[in-house]
Design a protein that fits this description.
The complex is a heterotrimer. By secondary structure, chain A is mainly α. Chain A contains 17 helices and 6 strands. Chain A folds into 2 domains: about 80 residues; about 300 residues, ABC transporter involved in vitamin B12 uptake, BtuC (Orthogonal Bundle), CATH 1.10.3470. Chain A has a two-stranded antiparallel ribbon with strand order 1-6. In chain A, helix 7 packs antiparallel against helix 13. Chain A is globular, with a radius of gyration of 22 Å. Chain B is mostly helical. Chain B has one domain: ABC transporter involved in vitamin B12 uptake, BtuC (Orthogonal Bundle), CATH 1.10.3470. Chain B has a two-stranded antiparallel sheet with strand order 1-4. A two-stranded antiparallel sheet of chain B has the order 2-3. Chain C has 15 helices and 14 strands. Chain C has a 7-stranded mixed sheet with strand order 7-6-8-9-10-13-14, sandwiched between helices. Classes of the chains: A mainly alpha, B mainly alpha, C alpha/beta. At the A-B interface, helix 8, helix 9, helix 14 and helix 17 of A face helix 4, helix 9 and helix 11 of B.
Chain lengths: ~400, ~300, ~425
């Protein structure tokens, strides 16, 4: 029982630090927050036993940890209610979680490099825009069709994916991304450089998502509606990806990534699985893009250029390739943090680039590296642990 | 069908553009051949080379060496040295430590490094956001042949560019260090067992690649008489594409890829209706088709997978 | 797989940890310094104004010029003892990207101390944030984005604009080229952003009204380096004028490469090339280029010279560029409104919608019912001896020099 309470206590402390880090403006509050973070980091490193105990507690009480995290995630908008800006950023982070899971399935799990993530998100977003504004389709329907279009257009890359490998595949996806961006910019029906505006928002039983909700007596900015919707979407996608990862399909995808020839020799249809992963991934990415369109009400070519594809890839690498919780962590850090450092003005991008380089040099496996699958075992199998003697 | 002189002029335009791309592409292919990495900050090193060259021209004028005949070779030399050193630093600091990591890491790391270089120029070069004029160090006259305008400076740029590529080829084929590069490219372990100093070879490769980028940058500045801190982005993307289409690891392939791109873009802009808007689409579409038809590039080697 | 001998197993700290803590502490200290507010006692109530513009990226020079002008105006009002309030500034970068612009709008909109915003140079960003400003009720005056839809495309109260739309500029430009200078054939090159496309569209309209002939219209990507292909194609058409719709970096390239290829035509541009950078970078090629800018020439108005002097006194690192004066005027108009009706967003928005003022450094300002300043005045500038000179004052107008385009036209006959 103490373990469960400890898990919840740790989550609460982290949550408090996150909220404080986002909202603290005055010097005292900032100082306290930084002090708190530094203290936590020092404690985590110096006391290896404490760290081990906490990690074991989390591992033993997964369900409780998830419940706690869910409650806190639902509570976040209430703490951020003074700031539509941060609610918006939090929602954006959740959209990137959705996109990240899809992209991770392609790159991390199956080894299919895709540097055109922004293009597939753009396909979802533009489809929503074109269907709702151009053809008057209801937003919910357009929202569901958007990702399908991303999947269908992704079929254009099927042949390259099967025939081309590694750096060359990266190049093909980069080329695809550029082609998409230029076409969106220069074709008339896509609105040209101005894009598509006034995309109608989602409505649930008559309740428009752009009305500011009032819950438990507190008035939240209307972006909170999108936050909750994005939370549901991200949770669903993460859960589905997790199930996929832990199934035979997930294992097969990993074998395709690790050794194609061995996989083929074991009877795996490499082509089928690569295309499957690519398409499923594109669905998630397109879903994120479609959500973005209804959230902001506006899509334009600069919103989906190569720079954003790089942000998506950064999230996956920094979070940890093939690591589903890593994606959540990566998106949660990589989207709000640069925003927090906007006061650096023109130095921001310089430090952002430097930070990524440093991260890659010192932590190449990411912040939450993928772990070996455990099938029914609560602890690492004794025969695999080098610290012998643990039964 | 447009008049012959227009076609010829456009062909010449494509040739010049091709030289620009080829010089950057050769750098990409060198790094790939030796280290198996795509050094994505190469485009921004190219930009850095141009800016270094520009700064040096101011220096020569300040110390009284402003006459073009003296300033030009000094600018090249100085920029090659300075940029080459920066290239070595990037190699040691950023690329080599990640040599064993998955290629995606190096891609992201070098891309981020490119961002750092670009932002550094923006912030630290006075009024870095503005395009800068590049001094006209080459003779400015021109002559016309059948309606085609050929400037002396274009010919000189072609000559210098060609000489640079030939020099790189000679270095790789005829010198000891070049042999080490080829050995490491084939098999790093075996090369080390034969007594090749891996670190020195890698350092030299970065120096060579960055130096070549500096030459490309200065030539670019001379050709367009203008440089801008974002000139490295597209140059990098197209340079990589050209090197890949030509076959990564093959210097001639990179040169071929560069010319292919230059000519393609120019022809698309010149002769296809609304072609200028879509010149990049045409170029990238061709890349995609090429990669499908010949996945390892025109002159690339087919990797043989043995089971 | 745990290494038995790793420092973590031993319970120690590695150098990496120290590095990491040090870096985070360092960054933390920087954060600490950031929003620090001086503890000095403030007698007047504080009112916050925000500035949003592209401070990084390809259009940074315009964004920075606008920002500096904004800061100058605020500094002037703070130094004025008659001001009722003390004005504090929040400067945000929209990176010329719509999402970032929306975030910036949200950020300042949700800060109740921010009463108004002077926003945007990039049209695509300005269009994206119209909704956000409206929903948050924050009055926003656009200082640089020229697309008509930004004010005409909606009925919201909050968004106003002090600079002109490109419609007027291009109609007058067409009249000048055809009726005043006598040019007949035009080749249009424009960049494929909304800015370039918009200019091309309205210039075409203007030409058709006055009987000019368009030989071709070519779109090129922004920041494209090599224009030799397009210019060779255009050269074969033998136009009298090449009109370029786009910004300074590309304008420079088109003009310089035009000269290198021996294209014998007049080069005409929009306000996008009316910058010191254009002349500096194009060098000798810039001579005889003319372009059009909304508003009166800064040096000519009573306040204009003062603006330029005051601007240079502040020692900003970047020049004010073409739209700096508009940012400056927007700031002053916003502060005027706040001084008059108090720091209340709704009241300020109401006041700003129908702004009317006689003496600003860009000339008389009058907003129509859409909150759009109908700037009747368009100034023609020509590059003469390394400087932009108002057409009427130039030696070209006086007949002492001949525009390159007119010279080519004469020689052709």
């Amino acid at each position: 029982m103490t373990q469960v309470l400890a898990v919840w206590a740790v989550e609460l402390v982290l949550f408090a630090l996150v909220v404080a880090a986002l909202l603290a403006e005055r010097p005292l509050a900032l100082g306290a927050t930084i002090g708190g973070i530094a203290a936590l980091a020092v404690i985590a490193r110096t006391s290896a036993r404490l760290w081990a105990w906490v990690t074991a507690a989390f591992r033993a009480h997964r369900a409780a940890a998830l419940v706690g995290a869910a409650v806190l995630a639902l509570a976040l908008p209430f703490f951020l209610r003074a700031s539509p800006y941060w609610t918006f950023v939090a929602t954006l982070a959740l959209v990137y979680v959705t996109i990240g899971q899809g992209l991770n399935l392609q790159i991390g799990t199956t080894g299919v490099i895709n540097l055109a993530g922004a293009a597939f998100a753009g396909l979802g977003g533009y489809t929503v825009g074109l269907l709702t504004v151009g053809l008057g389709v209801t937003p919910w329907l357009a929202f569901l069709i958007g990702p399908l279009v991303a999947v269908v257009v992704g079929a254009l890359l099927f042949v390259p994916i099967l025939k081309v490998r590694g750096h060359y595949l990266a190049l093909v996806t980069i080329a695809f991304g550029f082609i998409f961006n230029i076409l969106m910019n220069n074709l008339e029906f896509t609105g040209g450089p101005q894009g598509i505006k006034n995309i109608p928002t989602l409505r649930l039983f008559g309740y428009a998502f752009t009305t500011a909700p009032e819950l438990f007596g507190m008035k939240l900015p209307y972006h909170a509606n999108f936050y909750f919707a994005a939370l549901a979407m991200a949770a669903l996608v993460t859960w589905l990806t997790w199930r996929l990862y832990n199934s035979w399909t997930g294992l097969t995808l990993n074998t395709v990534r690790d050794d194609e020839i061995a996989a083929k020799c074991s009877g795996v249809s490499v082509a089928r699985y690569k295309l499957l992963a690519f398409s499923i991934g594109n669905f998630s990415i397109g879903l994120g893009g479609a959500f973005y369109a209804v959230m902001v009400g506006f899509v334009s070519p600069p919103d989906f250029d190569f720079g954003y594809s790089l942000v998506m890839v950064s999230i996956i690498i920094l979070g940890g390739l093939d690591s589903i919780p890593g994606i959540v962590l990566g998106a949660s850090l990589l989207i709000p943090l640069p925003e927090r450092f906007r006061f650096l003005h023109e130095y921001r991008l310089l430090l952002y680039g430097a930070a990524i380089v440093l991260m890659l040099l010192f932590r190449p496996r990411g912040l939450w590296p993928a772990t070996v699958r455990r099938y029914g075992l609560r602890e690492p199998a004794a025969s695999f642990a080098p610290e012998g003697g643990r039964r | 069908m447009p008049p012959l002189e227009v076609v010829l002029q456009q062909a010449f335009n494509g040739l010049m553009l091709g030289v620009m791309y080829a010089l950057v592409a050769v750098g990409f292919t060198l790094f790939f051949g030796v280290l198996d990495v795509i050094h994505f900050s190469h485009g921004d090193i190219f930009m850095l080379g141009a800016f270094t060259g520009l700064s040096l021209t101011f220096l020569w004028v300040a110390v009284g060496l402003g006459s073009p005949a003296v300033a030009l070779p000094l600018t090249f030399l100085g920029a090659i040295l300075a940029t080459g050193l920066i290239g070595v630093l990037t190699g040691r600091g950023c690329v080599k430590p990640l040599a064993k990591a998955p290629p995606l890491m190096t891609l992201l790391a070098t891309l981020s490094l490119g961002l750092v270089i670009r932002e550094a120029v923006l912030i630290f070069y006075p009024r870095g956001a503005d395009p800068k004029p590049f001094p006209a160090l080459l003779p400015q006259g021109l002559f016309e042949v059948g309606g085609v305008v050929i400037r002396y400076e274009n010919l000189i740029i072609l000559a210098i560019g060609g000489a640079a590529m030939v020099l790189v080829d000679l270095i790789i084929k005829r010198t000891r260090i070049g042999a080490s590069i080829r050995a490491v490219a084939q098999d790093a372990e075996a090369a080390q067992m034969m007594g090749v100093d891996l670190d020195r070879t890698v350092d030299f490769t970065f120096f060579l690649g960055a130096g070549l980028a500096a030459v490309a940058g200065i030539l670019n500045g001379l050709y367009y008489s203008e440089i801008h801190f974002i000139m490295g982005i597209m140059a990098g993307v197209i340079g990589f594409s050209a090197a890949a289409v030509g076959g990564l690891g093959n210097v001639y392939g990179a040169i071929l890829g560069g010319f292919l791109f230059g000519v393609l873009q120019t022809l698309a802009a010149a002769f296809i209706p609304r072609g200028s808007e879509f010149r990049d689409v045409v170029a990238f579409a061709v890349v995609m088709i090429f990669m499908v038809l010949k996945p390892t590039g025109i002159l690339g080697e087919k990797p043989i997978e043995r089971v | 797989m745990r290494d038995q001998t790793s420092p973590y197993a031993r319970g120690g700290i590695t150098r990496r940890d120290l590095l990491r803590t040090g870096v985070s502490a360092g960054l933390g200290l920087m954060a600490f310094r950031g929003p620090w507010r001086p503890a000095a006692a403030q007698a007047k109530k504080v009112v916050k104004l925000s500035f949003i513009g592209p401070l990084t990226g390809g259009t940074a020079s315009n964004g920075l010029g606008g920002r500096n002008s904004f800061l100058l105006a605020v500094a002037e009002r703070n130094a004025d003892p008659k001001s009722k309030y003390r004005y504090e500034t929040i400067v945000l970068d929209d990176e010329c990207k719509p999402t970032v612009g929306v975030q910036a709008a949200l950020k300042v909109g949700s800060d109740p101390e921010v009463i108004a915003s002077v926003s945007h140079y990039c049209s695509v960003v300005a269009i994206a944030t119209v909704d956000s400003f409206h929903k948050l009720g924050l009055p926003s005056m656009v200082w640089g984005a020229v697309l008509p839809d930004i004010t005409y495309g909606h009925k919201h109260l909050e968004v106003t604009r002090v600079n002109g739309t490109m419609i007027n500029q291009n109609h007058i430009a067409a009249e000048f080229a055809v009726k005043r200078l006598g040019f007949k054939t035009f080749s249009i090159i424009h960049d494929t952003t909304d800015y370039g496309r918009g200019h091309a569209k309205y210039f075409t309209e203007g030409l058709e009204r006055v009987g000019g002939k368009i030989l071709s219209t070519t779109g090129t990507a922004k920041d494209q380096k090599d224009y030799t292909a397009e210019l060779t194609k255009v050269k074969a058409e033998k136009p009298e004028v090449i009109y370029y719709g786009g910004l300074t970096p590309d304008g420079v390239r088109v003009k310089v490469q035009m000269d290198k290829l021996g294209v014998k035509a007049q080069f005409q541009g929009t306000s996008g090339i009316k910058s010191d950078t254009f002349i500096e970078t194009a060098g000798a090629s810039a001579e005889g280029v003319y372009c059009f800018v909304e508003g009166a020439p800064t040096e000519k108005l009573p306040g204009g010279k003062k603006f330029l002097e005051a601007y240079s006194k502040m020692n900003f690192a970047e020049p004010s560029e073409a739209y700096g004066p508009f940012a400056y005027v927007a700031t002053h108009l916003v502060i005027d409104a706040i001084e008059e009706v108090g720091p209340d967003r709704a009241k300020v928005a109401q006041k700003l919608k129908r702004t009317k003022k006689q003496d600003t450094i860009i000339g008389p300002v009058e907003f129509d019912e859409h909150g759009q300043n109908t700037v009747p005045l368009i100034t023609t500038h020509v590059a003469q001896d390394g400087k932009w000179v108002v057409w009427e004052d130039s030696e070209y107008a006086a007949g002492k020099r001949e525009l390159p385009g007119l010279k080519f036209k004469r020689e052709r006959v």
